[in-house]
Amino acid sequence: MTIHRCSTPWSRALLASSVLVPALALIASPAKADPEALPTIVVSPTGTATPLSQVASSVTVITAADIERYQQRTAADALSLVPGLNVVRTGGPGGSTSVFMRGTNSNHVKVLIDGIDASDPSKSNGGVDFANLLTSDIERIEVLRGPQSGLYGSDAIGGVISITTKRGQGPAKLTATAEGGSFGTFNQTARASGAQGNLDYSFNVAHYRTTDLPVTPLELLPPGQRRNNDHYDNLTYSTRLGVRANEDLVFNFVGRYIDAHKGFTQDNFAGWPNPPSPEALQSTSATRDFLTRSEAVWSPLDGRFKSTLGFSYANQWNRNNNPNPDFLLNNVSYLYGVGPASSYRGERTKFDWNGVFDAGYGQKIVLGAERQDDKIRTDSAGEYDFAGDYQQLMKAAKTGNSAGFAELQSEFTKNFFLVSNIRYDDNDSYGGHTTWRVAPVFIVPTLDTKLKATYGTGFKAPTLMQLYVNGPYTIANPALKPETSKGWDIGFEQPLFNDRVSFGATYFNNRIEDLIQNAFVAGKWTYDNVGSAKAYGVESFVSLQATETLRFRADYTYMQTRDEVTNLRLRRRPDNKVTLAAIWNPIERATITATVLHTSSWLDYGRFGPPLRDAPAFTTVNLAANYDVDKNVSVFGRIDNLFDKKYEVPVGFLQPGLGVFGGVRVTN
Fold this sequence. Notes:
By secondary structure, the chain is mainly beta. It is built from 5 helices and 38 strands.
């Protein structure tokens, strides 16, 4: 077993004290179950380190060991196997990547990286694009499903994804990897980490590159036009530092910088009456994201009280360039205010305080307060205005939010636990909003059956673009209200034969009101709170430890969604998702894994827009193998999409076919 240390705002209590066993058995170590093993610890459901057995929420934990075993190079790859999630990426690596959780919208997921809100204020829907998030420095991902605004505020209607990066520990260590393979792939990573005295450190560099990835289906191209394959290059730097000033006071710092570039094919809508088609010349995009957080953690009274004061800063910049001369005549570009060269910058600052007090008698109190300020700036060169002239337009907007929350975490007996919280947000733009949540757990004596339930509310604040930024054909609406939700779930988990077999199921139900959608008012497109939707379904699993070296896992998600205005299914939410996994250790130094992902059809637009259609179902199979040559050298290889399945996600964007990759890892 490996003891890990974590110190994000929500996981600092895990320092040097917890064995992080994956909650998702399909990515757990295939070692024999140990009845004396320490319990799995999670942080995201309560804001404090809590045994998973005492948590009612549906949580999936993905560790660094899991990511290495499955050779998942991006966070989107790691999330694709999680029940209740649907990952949609426009083509291959670097393509716009959204995560839909339990049927909610892609911007209804709160994403934290070391406690830093990863959403981009300059995006029109305020969602998180997972396109550029690599995994080489990730220690742990917690996927928390269900409404969580009572603790996390805006965006947490579908749930929360909390990512923690690696912290240095032990003697100084240098680690490097190199990998190559299909589609012109060439990846490298380097890490220096360790701890000495009162200082711990971790410095990471990751380079991810593909040069020849077919994304545009050939049948969409006009006669005689060749396909431009996508290329992608991502260079990510990250660091984590910790200084222990004394027994009670620790200072932490994290920083992350992403410099990503992509070549891709945009679409030409200007050929009317001819149908739309992919552009002839390749467009390019550049992304530069800088995220940082500093915090002071004070733990007096022998750890019975823990106070964390933090400051976060995020600066996210994106630029797109389309060299096609007909792009200026593209009516879609008018609607969204995009010119042939356009840039967007979102900036966020946040001060927060969090206090955890152990009141004794099984009662723990969590209090928090925060102030967040967002601002954006857009710059579109060559944009089309109402007068019919091309000009350069610059737009800026800002807003802020103050919030406070309280939580009571109760252990009434060794078999009954309850978490309840409430939060109030006061936004500079739309005023106040209150959310709350309750989550009881009961463990049936002798049988160890875990009975769980949750009920909570959530909300999604309108974005700065929706509130204040006017486009040539889209008018902002400063009167927008937050989107709101009410959601609940109920389920059970049953271990058998000393945890060699386990199974469970959870029913969930979520209803969303005041959805912000495009509306045509007085001859202009604007935004309004006119939508409502519902999503419900079941997440179930079975896990089997067949032998000491072989483990199997199956997950099945059944889901129904409905737009209550149109009475249609919600786009990009499949009714059925199945994942199967096997982990085998044929010898002590080798691990072989196999995964199967099946996604049923879903409703979607085509690449060029309406009408709606059914996107075909697909099934993919991946294999991966790792072998430790000695304690310093490992070799690895994988095959993605083993049977070369041709499928499009979303419609009109090919996903990578058969890919073969291999590499080496060296550690001093």
